[in-house]
Amino acid sequence: MLRPRITSTRELLALDGLWDFAVDDDTLLTPWAGPLAPALQAPVPASYNDIFTDPSIRDHVGWVWYQRIVRVPRGWTDERVIVRVDAATHHSVVYVGDVLVAEHEGGYLPFEADVTDRVAAGAEFLLTIGVDNRLTPDTIPPGTVTARPDGRLVQDYSHDFYNYAGLHRSVWLASRPAVHVCDVTVVTDIDGTTGLVDYTVEVSGEASVRVRLVDEAGAVVSAGEGRAGVLRVADARLWRPGSAYLYRLVIEAIVGHVVVDEYPLSVGIRTVAVDGARFPINGEPFYFTGFGKHEDTAVRGKGHDNAYLVHDFQLMDWIGANSFRTSHYPYAEEVLDFADRNGIVVIDETAAVGLNKRIEGGIAVAGGAEHNTFTSGFGPSIQDAHKREIRELIARDKNHPCVVMWSIANEPDSMIEGADEYFEPLFALARELDPTRPVTFVNLIAASPTMCRASQFADVLCLNRYYGWYEDAGDLVLAEAGLEAELREWEHRYRRPIIVTEYGADTIAGFHSVWDQPWTEEYQVGMLDVYHSVFDRVPAVVGEQVWNFADFQTKSGYFRVDGNKKGVFTRDRKPKAAAHALRTRWREIGRAKPGTDD
């Protein structure tokens, strides 16, 4: 699904701002039939949970409703009119007037509806969007809803971040021609100093296709005709980590001699591969430094915010990070656009987190694996939902040069019976949809090299490890020995690249000690130092991504006090001591490791 853009043939109207808002109850029988009453006001984009002071809204389980009047621009008489929702967490319905025009499952990927036959240029219409935050054994991520004796619904889930809900990203009204470019797939390669841009274009209707590739100075460097072809770029400027260069592919749909549609797409010429225990980008070994992150800020929750987007990237540049993982769901498209432009490498992950009954809120639970197979422990439709997430993620993000690998799950119970049968077709699907990028998943410590049933399918081993925190807490000597022994076993058995995609310790900013005392800033630094010394001794390790970039909110409970505190920055982006220590290491790595920049 192509992202709406303003071009010579398309227009775009942002519907962000304050919408009428109501929590569903017995009085809202048909909230789309007329104005919401009584209605609050809620901002879009934003999670609704932390906006209001009423705890019944923050803790609401079920549907909420957003509504506003929209006027179609009067110049759109002969255009198709599209309503696009960038994300609605987790199940959504869209009504134009009293007509259902779209329904979507999955909270982090976009969907749209052609509403041309329901609206008129220059006229107003009532737009109502319902959002349901419930997670079930058949959803991605999974969860369960239970009823308390007093009738209140309670949402349970295994993943360790707060189940923020609402319209987290922008809503758009877009125009496009009746005959238009529907989709574009670009694959790049390098032949000596020549860049190769293989393109495939889908058009809705009878039209010829013309393409041209434009460099950053505005000069046309290659051109072609037809719905598929290969453009050759002499002396190509490559997209490199830390040194991005983007060409612009302009696609035109032509009827007769008239250009009826134009769509531009940024293109970075680069290659990715797995070569033994190396991860080359453009043929040069790349070493990942960076973080697992979250879309999480105070008040906004998971609502996208461009100010935080730019500031977070500034902090990553300051600290010397060259990469991040979209843990544990696809991030806003604006984030990937910015990573494309700034040369930041991305491991792009589906929302398949919490497929594991051994853990609850990030903590191991006794007896959690009983009767927990992928054939009976979750709903019968969970694998279908997982496949849908993979399809939609790759369809949305396949053309981003910053995306170098797909991660199809985080910390599933990959050691349990049925895990291999569950995951093998998912890996196959991802490779069928995109044979150009490696595919991985992120392994939990319980699934050791001898017990994991899913690692056999992964091109790269991504490991979350917490020796010194959840294992051997407070003992960094044992932590170092345990970590090194395990990494060497993975290296010996699999002979594939290893990225430690999570490691770290909860840390209270301003808490200090002269001893190795957990929760202090000194302990966080000491634990990271131990891990880094091990990474430097294990050749198969090609990356380190600290958990987490910043402190983030989790669900209430005695395991967490105001959220997860493993960030090297606080939730409001103040550096802890670990941030300064990482800056020293990563900027030195940037000078020493090939494929990275200071």
TrEMBL record:
Q: Which domain of life is it from?
A: Bacteria
Cite the Glycosyl hydrolases family 2 sugar binding domain residue spans from the record.
14-177
- Under Enzyme Commission nomenclature, its number is 3.2.1.31
Q: Which PROSITE patterns match?
A: GLYCOSYL_HYDROL_F2_1, GLYCOSYL_HYDROL_F2_2
Q: Which residues form the signal peptide?
A: none
- Any idea which UniProt keywords this protein has? Glycosidase, Hydrolase
Glycoside hydrolase family 2 catalytic domain boundaries: 272-589
**What InterPro entries does the database record attribute to this sequence?**
Beta-gal/glucu_dom_sf (IPR036156), Galactose-bd-like_sf (IPR008979), GH (IPR017853), Glyco_hydro_2 (IPR006101), Glyco_hydro_2_AS (IPR023232), Glyco_hydro_2_cat (IPR006103), Glyco_hydro_2_CS (IPR023230), Glyco_hydro_2_N (IPR006104)
Q: Report the coiled-coil segments.
A: none
Q: Where is the Glycoside hydrolase family 2 immunoglobulin-like beta-sandwich domain?
A: 179-270
Q: Which family does it belong to?
A: Belongs to the glycosyl hydrolase 2 family.
What's this protein's name?
Answer: Beta-glucuronidase
Give the originating organism: Microbacterium helvum
